């Protein structure tokens, strides 16, 4: 009986870890990419404001590389 409970607990932990990996590896980077894309393509320019394009572009490149590496890791 204890062995079955440990086995069920193990599978629950594995599923939780799998969903966390999927969330941080697929959904979160795509969501951040969507937000940054809208931020870059539709910037609002106000008086006396400075838009730092190179900093945002570098963060966008980091997210693209993260998505690429994770998808290659999963074999998509």
Keywords:
2 helices; mainly alpha; 76 residues; 0% strand
Brief description of this entry?
The chain is mostly helical. The chain is built from 2 helices and no strands.
Model description:
With 76 residues, the chain is mainly α. The protein is 82% helix and 0% strand. It contains two helices and no strands. α1 packs antiparallel against α2. It is elongated, with a radius of gyration of 20 Å. The mean pLDDT is 76.
Q: What does the average pLDDT come to?
A: 76
Beta strands, count: 0
Q: Show unreliable segments.
A: none
| Radius of gyration, CA atoms, in whole angstroms | 20 Å
Instruction: Give the fraction of residues assigned to helices.
Output: over 70%
Number of helices: 2
Classify the secondary structure makeup into a structural class.
mainly alpha
| Residue fraction in strands | under 5%
Largest sheet: none
* Distance N to C terminus: 40 Å
The SSE string, one letter per element, is HH
Q: State the shape.
A: elongated
List the helices and strands and how they pair.
Elements: H1 2-41, H2 53-74
């Amino acid at each position: 009986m204890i062995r079955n409970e440990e086995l069920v607990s193990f599978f629950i932990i594995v599923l939780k870890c799998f969903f966390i990996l999927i969330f941080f590896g697929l959904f979160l980077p795509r969501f951040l990419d969507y937000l940054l894309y809208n931020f870059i393509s539709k910037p609002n320019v106000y008086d006396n404001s400075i838009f730092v394009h190179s900093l945002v572009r570098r963060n966008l490149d980091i997210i693209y590389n993260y998505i690429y590496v994770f998808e290659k890791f999963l074999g998509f």
